Amino acid sequence: MRPWLLFLHLFLAFPLAQPGPASAQETGASGAGTQSSDAENSCSVEDANNIISIILCPPGLDQSDWQKAGELACADRLPCGAWIWDEKDKMPAAAPENHDGLSRSEVTSALAVWVAEQELLITIESGK
């Protein structure tokens, strides 16, 4: 296993405490159908398989938009990881079979990954 992805595997291997009242679970579902988000209108799933979705969003969206894009991409698939980029040339051309299939540069250039089974958005600090 690649050491730089170890954090993700360890994170996914251990259950987390359930989120509080302002959780992804409530914010993601409660507003559904009442207003559309930028993510619904402008992010696109470029490729997907049984576990991984590859999403391209325009620059300038915020974490709530990335979360919504991830939720929409994963829908009810579990497990599901939706990786999000805002630069097409930095994302993989096809969804890998699992998270290990992403290169270090693909991981560090991603904005975030939505982990559906944990209902959690992990943002990625790229050091730009």
Quick overview of this protein structure:
This protein has 128 residues and is of the alpha+beta class. It has helices at 6-13, 24-30, 38-42, 63-74, 104-109, and strands at residues 44-48, 52-56, 81-85, 112-115, 120-123. The protein has one domain.
Question: Can you tell me about this structure?
Answer:
With 128 residues, the protein is of the alpha+beta class. Helix content is 30%, strand content 18%. The protein has one domain (37-128). The protein has helices at residues 6-13, 24-30, 38-42, 63-74, 104-109, and strands at 44-48, 52-56, 81-85, 112-115, 120-123. A five-stranded mixed sheet has the order 1-2-3-4-5. A hairpin with a 3-residue loop joins strand 1 (44-48) and strand 2. Residues 3-36 have low confidence and may be disordered.
What is the number of helices?
A: 5
Most strands sheet: 5 strands, mixed
**How many angstroms separate the termini?**
26 Å
Strands side by side in the biggest sheet: 1-2-3-4-5
Shape field:
globular
- The proportion of strand residues reads 15-25%
**Would you list the SSEs in sequence order as H and E?**
HHHEEHEHEE
Strand element count = 5
By secondary-structure content and strand pairing, the structural class works out as alpha+beta
The gyration radius over C-alpha positions equals 14 Å
Q: What is the domain tally?
A: 1
Q: Quote the average pLDDT.
A: 77
Q: What low-confidence regions span 5 or more consecutive residues with pLDDT below 50?
A: 3-36
Q: Give the % helix.
A: 25-40%
